[in-house]
Amino acid sequence: MLQYVVKRLLSTIPVLLGISLLLFFMLRMLPGDPAQVMAGQMASPEDIKLIRHQLGLDRPIIVQYGLFLSRLARFDLGRSARTQSPVIREVWARLPNTMLLAVAAITLACLFGIPAGIIAAVRPYTWMDYLFTSMALFGISMPVFWLGLMLVVIFSLVLQWLPAGGTGNWKHIILPSFTLAAFVVAFITRMTRASMIEALSQDYTTTARSKGLKERVVIVKHALKNALIPIITVVGLQFGALLGGAVLTETVFAWPGIGRLIVDSILARDYPVIQGTILIFGLLYILVNLMVDIIYAFIDPRIRYD
Amino acid sequence: MKQESLLSVMNLRTRFHIYEGMVTAVDGINLDVYRGETLGVVGESGCGKSVTALSILRLLASPPAEIQGTILFGGVNLLDLNLDEIRRIRGNAISMIFQEPMTSLNPVLTIGEQISEAIRLHQGVARQEAWSKAVEMLQMVQIPSPEMRVHEYPHQLSGGMRQRAMIAMALSCHPRLLLADEPTTALDVTIQAQIVDLMERLKEEFETSIVLITHNLGLIAEMAKRVLVMYVGKVVEEAPVEDLFQEPLHPYTQGLLESIPWIGKKLKTGRRQLQEIPGMVPSLLEMPEGCRFHPRCSRAMNICSKEEPPLVQKDGRRVLCWLWA
Amino acid sequence: MTETIQPQAWRNQRSADSQFKRNWAKLRRNKAALFGGILILIYLITALLAPVIFPGSPSAPNLSRSLERPSFANPLGTDELGRSILGRVIYGSRVSLLIAIGVVFVGLLVGVPLGLVSGYYGGKVDFGIQRITDTLLAFPGFLLALGLVSVLGVGLKNTIISVGISMVPIYIRLVRGCTLSVREQTYVEAARAVGTRDRTILLRHILPNVMIPITIQTSLGMGMGILSAAALGFLGLGVQPPTPEWGAMLGSGRAYLFHAPHVATFPGIAIFLAVLGFNLAGDGLRDVLDPRFRL
Predict the structure, then answer these.
(1) A204 Cβ under 8 Å from any chain B Cβ
(2) Which chains contact A through at least 3 pairs of Cβ atoms less than 8 Å apart?
(3) DSSP helix/strand/coil, B279
(4) Under an 8 A CB cutoff, do C142 and A286 touch?
(5) Domain ranges of chain C
(6) B50: number of CA atoms within 13 Å, CB side?
(7) Which of B59, B105, B121 is opposite residue A209, by nearest beta carbon?
(8) ipTM of predicted assembly, 2 dp
(9) pTM of the entire structure?
(10) CA pair distance C283, B58, nearest whole angstrom
């Protein structure tokens, strides 16, 4: 088991390196002088010179990359071109908000999606199945930002039950997390249904029934446990989609998270912050996938004992 | 001679609604299983033998499947029971083992769990006790170090051991009847022999009757006392095993026996090629008129293509053929 | 995957024809897929016949009629510059159709050859391509597109390129996986043993079998592409005004949400219906062509 975890950890290294390379070359692909880009439009010539020295632009590219990596290791992502405060601080201030939203959304999505998928699989081709499957299909086809806006119209404008944006009390998190969850719940429902149907058609399900076990036991103890593996994969993947959706949701609901940060910085051409947020997103996603892999090993003994 | 049968299947008809129409997998068969005997059911793939077993335990999903007839067990018609009642019989009075032990065992549960859950359910004992009974069962099927194995998962066992575990699981509640669907087909020949020995021994010890479903005639010769030969949903011949092998009555049975290669056959019979039954098994959607076997039968007569043959009783045997009518 | 697809079927023309007919019949029976097909058809017709359905310029401002509610003259109301929303939605279909096709085109153009090569040749080539794909996949699709836009800039062309590139890793993975399993088939081994050139094997044997998952993914990808592009438009980082793009319309309509919600509502419905159509059709195709190929 430990071996497995270590192997998984090691396999993230090439990806981390890849991301760092991506960011490194992105800066140099932008039009103009990289130092100027990093410094921003309001920088003085001395600032630009300082940054040019930091980036090592007059030295060979390998050295530049080395400098870049060493800065990354120290979490030095530069300073925001807009606010001049360290990028890491900007990101760190907003990260918890996005995480809160993401966790709320994925929890909601699992709470609705997994039972819906199970019901749809156990009673296929009935009205319940069609209802849940259609809802899932609608969820995938709806633009997240549109759904958010429509929910605001209904709940803030017409019904006046919930606030339209910002933070404050628990009421503020409801609409954004539901909006974000809507897209993800669709994938989870579909995956759960497909995975359960597959598990229920396996030989071991027939064996379980042939022992006289109650249907409920067959579904939960025998089928669901096997079905969880692909479901968890999807939940992990969807976390990534959530991060993308967070960008949009945070914009709609004026939620102070890193999603909004990246949009604002792209619009303002605040390159250091763009770089920093992209890095954080990548790291988060890798972390989530790592956790998914570890959870796999807990559920599927074949992975553990191989 | 006329002892009371343990299981009495009368006029069983199992049909499936599929998009192209209605297919009849089992078309009005009768069979009886007596106490302490092994009944062999032999036939090619698709002849309906597995469906028969699944129909007895009502393991077929009932919207596409439709089962008619009478299945008497212990004086009760199993087809009249509701699902809760049938669940009390499954794994308890009647058990089943399947062909592929790798896919038939749940990969994410331990062997011990899979054996003891049936014990806990049907015998109402606590977890600890059920677990030790599971260890006992593993001992009885001759799995070495059962106390360790009981905590292992199916993929950690070899094919032969998995099948033994399945047998342990099925016999854990001392059923009166065991339905064995191709129990040795997925195993190596040497392991097959071991499993056959095991099943014989356990049959004696638990006084369980066995319905042995297989396409392997050799296995039938070894284990069965009486044999049913099935072809496309019908029983075409029924006889005690020695009679069947010495004097097969139905042309299909004859064809099956003749197609078995044995060492020295070429020398003795002068045939250079393997014997086969010409033609192919008909699709369930396009059944021939009259006798189902007649297009492939070397002794077919005119009437065979027009009317279905009657079931003929002859010296304690039965044949579905015009030749003997 | 290949247990259900019979690769040899593609070699035998007669059975390929009847297979096609059977698949078509099966597809017609699937009501959901049919509905999706109808939606796509409506979408296509609207895009192609836009000037006929709505004569006049959709982008010409008419400030005297700014932010009017839906009425007879303007069935979907007007936006902040007085332009008919109906007209903009209709013309917007052209823009998103262009995006949908462009995005999938980029994905296929880059993804399919890379996937084929990666799967067929293996070794260092595969390793290299896979590591790049892994890195690209370390970011959820939309974020990747967003990142690319920050480098390339905004506008229609850059939107298509960015979203298209974010689809490439999906195609690479898909094609590579399929190639790997087809490569192991005995008839490929036989072809190699007879001395067939690699290029011929790739084109004649492997590519036809990869077509099925590609087709399914393309249908779904068009829907995803429209969504991603609309999202970029919404953020102001996609297609720029005055070009009528549904996402951008939503974005600018957002400011008037409380006074004139119709400005943001209708383009969103358009996006929804278009994407729904592609998803339904894609699902239907998948059920017919390869039911094992689930989500």
Answers:
(1) yes
(2) B, C
(3) coil
(4) no
(5) 31-55+72-293
(6) 13
(7) B59
(8) 0.87
(9) 0.81
(10) 34
